[in-house]
Amino acid sequence: MFLIEEELKKLPVKPGVYIMRDINDTILYVGKAVNLRNRVRSYFRPNIGRGPQIDKMVTLIERFEYIVTDSELEALVLENNLIKEYSPKYNTLLKDDKTYPYIKVTVGEEYPRILFSRQMKKDKSRYFGPFTSAAAVKDTIELLNKLYQFRTCNRKLPQDIGKDRPCLNYHIKQCTAPCQGYITKEEYGARVAKALEFLNGNYQPVLAELQQKMEVASENLEFEEAIRYRELINSVRQVSQKQKITDSIGEDKDIIALSKDGPDAVVQVFFVRDGKLIGREHFYMTHVSDESKPMILQSFLKQFYAGTPFIPRELMLQYEVEEQELIEQWLTKKKGGRVHIRVPKIGTKEKLVELAAKNADLVLSQDRERIKREEGRTIGAVREIANLLGLSGVSRMEAFDISNISGFQNVGSMVVFEKGKPKRSDYRKFKIKTVAGPDDYACMREVLTRRFLHGMEEKEDFQNREMDEAFGSFTRFPDLLLMDGGRGQVNIALEVLDELKLDIPVCGMVKDDNHRTRGLYYHNEELPIDTHSEGFKLITRIQDEAHRFAIEYHRSLRSKTQVHSVLDEIPGIGPSRRKALMKYFKSIEEIKNAEVEELTKVSEIPQSVAEEIYHFFRRQ
Questions:
Q1: Which of 341, 367, 393 is the last residue of a domain?
Q2: Residues 482, 519: contact at Cβ < 8 Å?
Q3: 3-state SS assignment for residue 151
Q4: Would you say residue 376 lies in a domain?
Q5: Distance between CA 390 and CA 226 in Å, rounded?
């Protein structure tokens, strides 16, 4: 039995992370502390002005646990990981989980390429961004490939030069074909240098060169070429106009401000790269009712920069934050270079922060209705379903489906919805192992048994490993299990849960003769549901998603089995020998008509295998 008063006495005077849990073992709050004993004890002292939200949380705490770390910096990193994994109800949370596009120039290759990337890796490439518009990034890459005709293939150059014919891009004048040696390494490198100059914001040399080429083509009456250059000039101007100069120094910085109104808060970020404003983005923060603006800003910094691959040299904030020095230390270590956090008071920088704050105000006022509609479709819809079933605390729902064609390649799917939204990272596929024929009930029994046994094993393993290494997608069990069908599927699920001694509500999604959802089957009763309600629409989305995911997996397995050659039926022929035969003879017909002596000319084919091939086709 967990006695809070006794456990408080055991708390160490060390830095670490603490985790508060309720009676259902759900994580309520995750925090970090320089001194675990003082911080955790403070929650159980008489009210000292923590705010009603935290006071309410304290009444729900049934037990707590903690993880000791070597430093406050390690505690900060672990706190971020746990908050991201569990999204505790009483933590201030960053709702958006966005990844930003970059332009990647593979300067580490002898013949570099210009690529679209959503990750910034520590490799030999140069990255430009992040940008807020994927379309703008793709337009820029397309423009540079038109201007300089870079390769887009994955061939290893110069090793592969001359091994294969040039691709279509060469013939339509979209590539200079370095794979054939049609352009020297020096000339190709000069083009890359011009592209890098362009990406650094120096557009004038490109415009001047294109203008000159357009005029020469026009004088030579080459009007199609002149039109092409004119279109390229317009494209360059469109790309250049998307960037506004904000700083003559040319540094990288993020300008961050927020707006708060009751339980809602929006953080606005202006992204400045090489002194140019390349875009802006806003982020919603939740569970902020009792939080001050500086504390919301601090939570945003820790959660946002834990997930973004690029960290600028400077963060310009609207307010001072309590853990500024620690966050600077963390970001500096993460970036591998000094990072400064500043709160400008006067001048141009202060005006930029003020502009970001005004944008946050605008977003908050404009999006209030949209936010309410979105919550109605998601959280509100979950609440409707829970009320219909007489349940409380429903957040995570899992749905399962079986797919096969006359028992061939039985597969199962598991889809997960949290707070009314799909959580695709937790989706799982199951290839049925124990059922050979078209028996959906047996297949479902196997899928559910494997899913929950795996989760129980992960939970047991969880007790024996470090907290930040123990997370598994199966560890979290659903608050509600949704079965694609009525009484039969629900009973299968209840039997599995009973065998495993698990108590999870199970509900069937019943369909009519037209294969449309008509109601829910729960506790041996079919409950009608308003077909115009958000709850009904959510159930339909979940059911369709489970079906789509199962069909998609089944289709992928079928396509793999259909990639089959008659050569695979010959003893001694595997993938490498099949490939060698097709490369030498060009067609199955030629192999079929070949004599043993000719077959042995293929380097991969010994005499014994050549005889097998010869006799195989003579027996057909």
A1: 367
A2: no
A3: coil
A4: no
A5: 72
Q: Residue 596: which CATH number?
A: 1.10.150.20
Within this chain, do residues 120 and 223 fall inside the same structural domain, yes or no?
no
Domain for residue 11, yes or no? yes
Beta bridge pairs of residue 403:
411
Question: Which of 391, 384, 426, 417 is closest to 504 using CA atoms?
Answer: 391
- Strand 126-128 to strand 102-105: parallel, antiparallel, or no bridges (unpaired)? antiparallel
pLDDT digits (tens, 9 = 90+) for 112-154: 999 998 877 778 888 887 676 677 778 788 888 888 899 988 8
Q: Is residue 266 helix, strand or coil? A: strand
Q: Is 468 helix (H, G, I), strand (E, B) or coil?
A: helix
The secondary structure element, H or E, covering residue 405 is strand 396-405
Could you tell me the CATH number of the domain that includes residue 21?
Answer: 3.40.1440.10
Would you say residue 248 has pLDDT above 80?
Answer: no
Q: At what angle do helices 379-389 and 534-562 cross, to 10 degrees?
A: 100
Is the pLDDT at 328 greater than 90, yes or no? yes
Q: Over the stretch 513-554, which tens digit does the pLDDT of each residue have?
A: 776 778 889 998 888 888 888 899 999 889 888 888 888 876
Q: How many domains does the chain have?
A: 6
**CB-count burial class (<10 Å; 0-12, 13-18, 19+) for 571:** exposed
Dihedral of the alpha carbons of 86, 88, 89, 95, in degrees to the nearest 10? -70
Residues 156 and 284 in one domain: no
Tell me, yes or no, whether 543 and 494 share the same domain. Answer: yes
Q: Are strands 340-342 and 314-317 parallel, antiparallel or unpaired?
A: parallel
Statement to judge: residues 534 and 428 lie in one domain: yes
Q: Does the pTM exceed 0.70?
A: no
Distance (Å, rounded) from C-alpha 439 to C-alpha 589?
A: 42
- The reported pLDDT for the residue numbered 315 is 94
Q: How many CB atoms lie within 10 A of CB 278?
A: 23
How far the first Cα of the chain sits from its last, in Å, is: 75
Residue 457's nearest CA partner among 477, 481, 440 is: 477
Output the CA angle 166-172-176, nearest 5 degrees.
55
Q: Among 329, 341, 357, 374, which Cα is nearest to 534's?
A: 374
Mean pLDDT, residues 22-37: 91
Q: Which domain holds residue 167?
A: 102-201
